[in-house]
Amino acid sequence: MDYIGLIAIIILVAAIVFLLYYYIQTVNEGNVNLKEILKFSPKEDNASSLVDDEIQEKKSMGDKIKYTFKDIDKSYANTTDAFSKRLDSFLDERSEELIESWSLVTTDDLSSLEERYTTACDSIEALEKRFSEFTNATDAKIEDLDKRLNALEEAEKDLEVAEEPAVEEAEEVAEVVVEAEKE
């Protein structure tokens, strides 16, 4: 572990100890008896008498800080309320300018966009319906054209089949005529 990590751990431990001390003071309304909390043994009682003076000094300092924090909390709440009111009045006065300069969306803009979206969806549905109808009509016309084309092809085949004997007969007649002319 490097030095920065070690320093971070020490700071975290110190912060936790400070928060626990502050919590115990607020729960007991500032009457903290560390001996009861830590439960010193009699041997340590003599050594702790020297520490008691330091604890009293820290306790009095803690009380001073506590009272200072109480005063700050009240004034802080008042300043935040005042700041909030000033901010609200500023926003009320300049809301239109802010909306335009920051390109913000209003509820009217959202309503307009929702209407346009609904219209676009309806138009798309109408186009899909018309496309489906057009596709069905085109498919029907293609089937009809296929049937007619098949009928014409069948008729052409029938004509070709019927023409073959007639052509053969015509060729035979032409041969007979040519032979008769030769004679």
Task: Describe the model.
By secondary structure, this protein is mainly alpha-helical. It has a domain at 3-112. Helices cover 91% and strands 0% of the residues. The chain contains 4 helices and no strands. It has helices spanning 3-27, 34-38, 42-102, 107-182. The longest helix has 76 residues, at 107-182. The radius of gyration is 52 Å and the shape is elongated. The relative contact order is 0.03.
Q: Main beta sheet, described? A: none
User: From the alpha-carbon coordinates, what is the Rg to the nearest angstrom?
Assistant: 52 Å
What is the 3D shape?
Answer: elongated
Distance between the termini: 131 Å
Short description:
By secondary structure, the chain is mainly α. The protein has four helices and no strands. The chain has a domain at 3-112.
List keywords for this structure.
elongated; 4 helices
